[in-house]
Protein 1
Amino acid sequence: QLQACGGGLVQAGGSLRLSCVASGLTFRTYNMGWYRQAPGKERELVAAITSGGSITYYADSVTGRFTVSRDNDKNTVYMQMNSLKPEDTAVYYCAARRNGASKYDYWGQGTQVTVSS
């Protein structure tokens, strides 16, 4: 129900834009998050956006470099990633959390982002 894409191989300092298309759910009632998991590390929340798009959250490690946005008419959430660093290398997952829920209900399949130095 969540299909993420946009990952790839990029040099340090480069940019990528991830997209995540939702289907089978009322997208505008879900808060959305982007997580990442690097080899040997725990999954971490990178960015999130509320259902209406008015509030965003960023991990300290990406603040000022990543921007999360959404288009509720297209059932899509985006994450623009600029000034990429090798430490951003990970599999990136989008996730959906219903308004009022404490956990993310749905997860995408993940898209690989690799940043070379």
Protein 2
Amino acid sequence: QVQLVESGGGSVQPGESLRLSCVVSGPISNINSMAWYCQAPGKEREWVSAITAGGSSTYYADSVKGRFTISRDNARNTLYLQMNSLNPEDTAVYYCATASFRVRTVGYEYWGQGTQVTVSS
């Protein structure tokens, strides 16, 4: 079974940056799209960003467009999310996810356990 482990979360001040990582292990040969989601306290989990298998296409929620960058290193089986210009509304648990097909906002099959991002002054 595919396993995903996120890291890189933490507490930062508004305007600062964080880089999240997600290491994938297990039977990864069928992995296609990968994505990041977030879940703020009291809210449902929501899609943040996605990337295709080769990394040539990336997609972003409007709320993070221009501030966040998704990337993947298939040689290292790792997904990244560079988060710049963070604001308190970005505070959430961030999850990475994988899919066997090319998908964008839904259809992900495997999930990590999440990493907390807190933005506060």
